[in-house]
Amino acid sequence: MRTQVAIVGAGPAGLLLSHLLDLEGVTSVLVECRSAEYVKSRIRAGILESGTVELLKEVGLGDRLSEEALEHRGIYLQWPGERYHLDFVEHAGHPVWVYGQTEMTADLMKARERAGRPAFYQVDDVALHDISGDRPYITFSDAAGRPQRVDAAVIAGCDGFHGPSRRMMPTAGRRTWERTYPFAWLGALAAVPPSTDELIYAWHPNGFALHSMRSPQLSRYYLQVRPDEDINGWSDERIWEELAIRLGHGQDAWSLQTGSIIEKSVLPMRSFVTTPMRHGRLFLAGDAAHIVPPTGAKGLNLAVADVALLARALGAWLRDGSEALAHGYSETALRRVWRCTHFSWWMTTMLHRHGDDFDAQLQLAQLQRVIASEAATKELAENYAGLPIGR
Predict the structure, then answer these.
(1) Distance between CA 137 and CA 128 in Å, rounded?
(2) What DSSP state is assigned to residue 169?
(3) What is the CA radius of gyration of the chain?
(4) Which CB contacts under 8 angstroms, 24+ apart, belong to 111-117?
(5) In a domain, 333, yes or no
(6) Which residues are annotated as catalytic?
(7) Residue 361 exposed, middle or buried by CB count within 10 Å (0-12, 13-18, 19+)
(8) Are 263 and 100 in contact (CB under 8 A)?
(9) Cβ neighbours of residue 165 under 8 Å, at least 6 residues apart?
(10) Which of 192, 289, 346, 348 is surrounded by the most beta carbons within 10 Å?
(11) Which among 235, 292, 290 has a CA at the least distance from the CA of 267?
C-alpha cells in the first residue's frame, strides 16, 4: 500500500492530522495498536482552549461540540477559607470549553469514516524503516495477523511516549528533559451533577484537589496522592470524605454533591520534552514528543497545535513542493511546547503540597499574588485560555 503520509497512532493527534491532511489534499493511512473501541473510550483531558475550538469549527468538526460543550469563563482558585474566581474572558479575552477527549475522538473517528480513508486498528509489531532516506515505510501485522507494508513520503509519529516512533529518533543530536513529580492524581469519574459552575483548583494542607466536570450529569474529581498509592485503599466513601475536606464542603454554604463513582485510577505526574521533533522523513507530534502534568490542561491542546502546524507544513511540501515549513516545524512547535511546559510546571508546583511548611507558605504567597495582582491574574488567564496556535 502506498500513501503520502503514514500516521502511526490513531488517538486525537493522529486522527486530527489525518483530517487536516485530507483538507490539504494529502492522502494518509492510520495505524494503531489498540482497538477502535479502546481508543474511543479512553478517558483523558476535558478542557479545550479557545484556539483548539476555533480550529475544530473551522475544519468542519464543530457541530456536536457547539451543541454539547460547556463554555467556561474561568476557574476558581481556592485555599482554606478563601475562594476566588478568575475570569479568563475579562483578563485574556477568551473562555475555555469543557468537552471530553472521548467526545472529540468520537467526532474525529466519524470524520475519518466519512472520508473513507484507510485505518488499521489492533495492529502488532509496528516498525519504521528508512526514515533518513527518501522512501520511508512502515511494516506491521494487521488484526488478522497478516503482514502489511505502507510506503509513504513522510511518517508522522503520533503514537505517544511508549510508541515506536520516538525510539526511532537518532541519539546523536537528540536531547531529552524530564521531571518526575513526587505525587500523583487519584482521578474519580462520578455519575453526579457538578457541584460548581466552573472548575475549582484547591490548595490544601492535605494535598491538592480539583473539581472538574464532563457534562451536566458527569463530574470528574482529582486528589493529590503518593505516586505509589494503592487505588484499592480508596473506597468511594473515603474519596468523597477527602474531597469534602479539601474542597471546603460547608465553606460559604457551598456543598459537595456525592453519588456513584463509576471509574477511578491513579495518574502519574511528569514533564517530558524530547528534541528535535523531526528527523529526515519522520515527524513527531503530541505525547510522542512531550508530556505535561495535567494541572494546566495543556496536553490535548498541545497535540492539536502540533498537528495543525504539521498538516500545513506537509501540505506545502507534498502538494506544492515547498519544504520551508517542514524544515521549521520542530523549532516552531517547540516554542509553544516549552511555554506550555513551563505553565504546567508552574501550576503544578504552586498548587500541590510538597516540601515543608516553608514551601507551603511560599505557595500561599504565590496564590495570594495571583489574586491580588492584575498582571499575575492576566498571566495565568492568558496561558490557561490558550496561546495562538499559529497555523
Answers:
(1) 6
(2) S
(3) 21
(4) 111/15, 111/19, 111/60, 111/61, 112/15, 112/18, 112/19, 112/30, 115/18, 115/19, 115/22, 117/18, 117/22, 117/27, 117/28, 117/29, 117/30
(5) yes
(6) 72, 201, 294, 298, 384
(7) exposed
(8) no
(9) 8, 9, 128, 155, 157, 158, 159, 282, 284, 288
(10) 289
(11) 292
CA distance 335 to 355: 31
The parent domain of residue 26 ranges over 5-72+98-177+270-354
Which residue(s) pair with 275 in the sheet? 175
d(CA 84, CA 81): 10
Q: What is the pLDDT along the chain (391 residues), one digit of tens a residue?
A: 999 999 999 999 999 999 999 999 999 999 999 998 888 777 666 899 999 999 999 999 999 999 999 999 999 999 999 999 999 999 999 999 999 888 999 999 999 988 888 899 999 999 999 999 999 999 999 999 999 999 999 999 999 999 999 999 999 989 999 999 999 999 999 999 999 999 999 999 999 999 999 888 999 999 999 999 999 999 999 999 999 999 998 777 789 999 999 999 999 999 999 999 999 999 999 999 999 999 999 999 999 999 999 999 999 999 999 999 999 999 999 999 999 999 999 999 999 999 999 999 999 999 999 999 999 999 999 999 998 876 4
d(C-alpha 357, C-alpha 45), whole Å: 32
Residue closest to 210 by CA, chosen among 253, 239, 181:
239
Backbone CA torsion sign across 60, 150, 329, 380 = positive
Residue 286 lies in a domain: yes
- CATH of residue 25's domain is 3.50.50.60
Whose cell is 524530547? That residue is 274
Domain count for the chain: 1
Helix (H) / strand (E) containing 77: strand 74-79
